[in-house]
Amino acid sequence: MNRGTEACHRDIITVDSVSFSYQQRVVLNDVSFNVKERDFIGLIGTNGAGKTTMLRIIVGLLRPTAGEVRLFGEPISQFKGWERIGYVPQKNNLNPLFPATVKEVVLSGLAGKRKWFGLHSRQDYIKCDDALMAMGVEDLADKRIGQLSGGQQQRVFLARALINNPSLLILDEPTVGIDHETQESFFHMIKHMHQHHNMTFLMVSHDMEMIKGYLGEQPKSAAGKLNFYIRHSHETQDCVEENLAHSLKHLRSQMESRKEG
Ligand SMILES: Nc1ncnc2c1ncn2[C@@H]1O[C@H](COP(=O)(O)OP(=O)(O)OP(=O)(O)O)[C@@H](O)[C@H]1O
């Protein structure tokens, strides 16, 4: 019996014949692809190819002019499980005077209505601490986000995306403007999450060294100007592992032992 297909190779993103235009300008034309649970997908394309537009459609910020997106098997219009998805948009030019602290930024990633009213339970603060710890930025919790370096801010935005312990992470050029060393540790973290935490990744990147190093030399598929590099966490026939979900704390302890080693 191949329980695996059911257990961990479901389609969690299905993009079905999607087209999109800004005003009259066609950016995406009849794009189809799918992302299976626990895959790592690198979405590559030239500047202006429509990568960010594609991600914004997938997270429901833009509506396709034609075609359909399904998330975890449900049409996006009916999808309610947004806490299962973490999204880190392209590096935004954060106003250094933006008054929120790191902790507030991370807490604002919590799913549900409470976040809008700033009402947080003890459990919320524990989740926040876990996410900060996992990203190694707990010491910065009370700093203003605008005071942090680009690399530190990216870790905070990743912590914000992780606070709900999502099963799918969507990252839009997460390492732009970050020095090489910080990039490496960032990629180490996300590879770890892919390999040990059953997370699925869809990542836009121009870093071909990382993409080819982790996802293979050649794209597995293409749609228009978009190329998809894909790494499966494991083959379907090897789906014997179940319930591998670890807490984010575990990731932190792995990171620490790496630092010490
Ligand atoms: N809000 C907008 N209004 C009009 N045109 C837009 C808008 N956003 C993006 N575009 C245009 O749509 C095209 C695709 O943009 P998009 O940001 O999706 O590309 P990209 O592949 O992510 O590019 P990059 O690698 O430069 O980030 C570009 O030509 C861009 O100028």
UniProtKB/TrEMBL annotation:
Question: SMART domains from the xrefs?
Answer: AAA
Q: Where is the ABC transporter domain?
A: 13-248
| Pfam families associated with the record | ABC_tran
Q: Which GO terms describe its molecular function?
A: ATP binding
Keywords per UniProt: ATP-binding, Nucleotide-binding, Transport
Q: Does the keyword Cytoplasm apply?
A: no
Q: Tell me the PANTHER family matching this sequence.
A: METAL TRANSPORT SYSTEM ATP-BINDING PROTEIN TM_0124-RELATED
Similarity remark: Belongs to the ABC transporter superfamily.
Task: Indicate what this protein is called per its UniProt record.
Answer: Metal ABC transporter ATP-binding protein
